[in-house]
Amino acid sequence: MGFAVTGGGRTYGESADRPGIQLYGRQLELLKEIHATGTPMIVILVGARPLSTPWIIDNIPAFLNTWEPGMQGGRAIADVLFGNYNPSGRLPTTIARSVGHIPQYHAQFRTRYYIGYRLGGEKVNSPFYNFGHGLSYTEFEYSNLQLVEQFPLNEEEITLKVDVENTGKMAGKETVMVFVRDVVSSVATPERELKAFGKVELKPGEKKTISLTIPQKWLALFNREMEEVVEPGDFDIMIGHASDDIRLQKTISIGLN
Length: 257
Known about the structure:
This protein has helices spanning 27-36, 54-59, 73-81, 110-118, 122-125, and strands at residues 2-6, 42-46, 62-67, 140-147, 150-151, 157-166, 172-182, 193-202, 207-215, 221-222, 228-229, 233-242, 245-254. The protein is of the alpha/beta class. It has two domains: 2-125, Rossmann fold (3-Layer(aba) Sandwich), CATH 3.40.50; 140-254, Immunoglobulin-like, CATH 2.60.40.10. A hairpin with a 2-residue loop joins strand 12 (233-242) and strand 13 (245-254).
């Protein structure tokens, strides 16, 4: 049984603030009543707000967030549910567990990251869904990270290569994300921040090498004199499927050789 829950056009937009980020009205109550009958269910969420849905994730085996799918959305949803299309969408935002956790985003500064995520335990304070989250009908493996470890200061760009393999039984697309962390800096910097990404389409068993570049100026910060500079030091380069799903990591040095 497919069951659609929604926000509705009148629950978001200008002058439509809400005190919570849960499902609206009595929709969750209705879901629980249907679930109690033992009827197999698939839940489809339609709407523009990033909603927290812990009960659905814990109790319903299949959950599809379609946002605002448009006039052909019904056909697209059917193709995904029946396996005619392998979804490859990723969250462009972070979904918090409750309204009390807002704001949450992947590029939190370290002071907020360690206070907000670490104290009290990961399950309590970590996001409900992290930036970049997205499931597929297949699996991808990362290997063979190729990245020079030493760079002179003010070199134009940092280039990395990584192998991505489709280890499942269905063709699919994988978005490779590259996050960077400034290990030691004169001012506060994010715990990790997206700096590059690329999408690759792979047949079952196929492996490809994807190449990504990061202009060195993208690693700059504003120092205490409000000058935009790349400070010499170490940077962690993290490659993965999402901000909380890092597959490969390497530390490089800039301006230290």
